[in-house]
Structure formats: structure tokens, C-alpha cells
Design goal:
The chain has 80 residues and is mainly beta. The chain contains 1 helix and 5 strands. The longest helix has 6 residues.
Length: 80
């Protein structure tokens, strides 16, 4: 979380709609808009295991529409 710069926020994971008119910005631009302790909704893929040597994989998928007037979709996926 520190590497991503999001350790100072209260994260609420969601799988959701990519809203019409949504704009993708750089990490630096996005972090400028947030303040310490703010509730931030995010799509987060997370998987844990206590089995030594176990390989686990996660990813976030985004279906972003070709035009800004349509909605897209965001989801997480994990394999164990």
C-alpha cells in the first residue's frame, strides 16, 4: 500500500461500474485530490494464503468504453 501511495486512506473495496464521463488520471494527479483519512472507494484484488510456497494470483479487470458517454465495468479476479 505504501508503494502505491494509498496507505493513508480508508479503502472501501468495490466491484462496480466505470461511470460515464469518468477520467483516468495519473497517480500523482489523483493523490493531490485526496486527504489523510479520507474514505476512498477502490477496486482491489487481494488473495492470501498461509500455505508455504503456495502460488496465488490476483488481477483487476477494466472494461472501458470507447466513448465517455457510456459506462464500463471494473472487477477483481483471483486464482488459488
Amino acid at each position: 500500500m505504501r508503494d502505491a501511495g494509498i496507505e493513508k486512506f480508508n479503502l472501501v473495496p468495490v466491484r462496480s461500474i466505470f461511470p460515464p464521463g469518468c477520467e483516468i488520471v495519473s497517480v500523482e494527479e489523483g493523490l493531490k485530490e485526496l486527504f489523510l483519512g479520507q474514505i476512498v472507494f477502490c477496486v482491489m484484488a487481494r488473495m492470501t494464503s498461509n500455505e508455504e510456497g503456495k502460488r496465488i494470483f490476483t488481477s483487476v479487470g477494466a472494461a472501458i468504453p470507447p466513448t465517455a458517454d457510456l459506462n464500463g465495468y471494473l472487477t477483481e479476479y483471483r486464482i488459488q
